[in-house]
Design a protein that fits this description.
CBS-domain, four-stranded mixed β-sheet, 5 helices
């Protein structure tokens, strides 16, 4: 069985993810975002091109929601929805789980698991810094177990 090749810039030692790991150390920094007034078709294109499942939604530079791939797929099944006309604001989830960059990874991951959140948007002083997804969590768990 072949082992997947490793990015040499990614630490793989077991110390990388520990009880004291902060979310800033494992988040995806500067995530792709989308405006709340953008069309669903644009969101779908961005997600497909960048292989994303979550997009923070901004209005006037402020976080107002998160759009998941699941939200998009669900809305597209509803009769009368036109992805070329309907806006992201119609499909986004306005209640976003946010974390501070200095929050402990274990605490964020625990909340995400208990509440079944697919992501945490990392904010500091009203500014979007990053996103931490369930996929990020699994990637770092795999590194810790390597």
């Amino acid at each position: 069985m072949m082992r997947p090749s490793r990015d040499p810039s990614t630490p793989t030692d077991r110390e990388h993810v520990s009880r004291t790991t902060k979310i800033r150390q494992v988040m995806t920094p500067s995530p792709h975002t989308i405006g709340s007034d953008q069309k669903l078709a644009r969101a779908h294109k961005v997600m497909r091109e960048h292989r994303l499942r979550h997009l923070p939604v901004l209005r006037g530079g402020r976080l107002v929601g998160v759009l998941s791939e699941r939200d998009l797929f669900f809305l597209e099944t509803i009769a009368g929805v036109d992805i070329d006309l309907d806006a992201v604001s119609d499909a986004m989830t306005p209640d976003v789980y946010t974390a501070h960059p200095d929050d402990a990874l274990r605490d964020v991951a625990r909340i995400m698991a208990v509440r079944r959140y697919g992501c945490a948007v990392v904010m500091e002083d009203g500014h979007l810094l990053g996103i931490f997804t369930a996929t990020d969590a699994l990637r770092h768990l795999a590194e810790a177990l390597a």
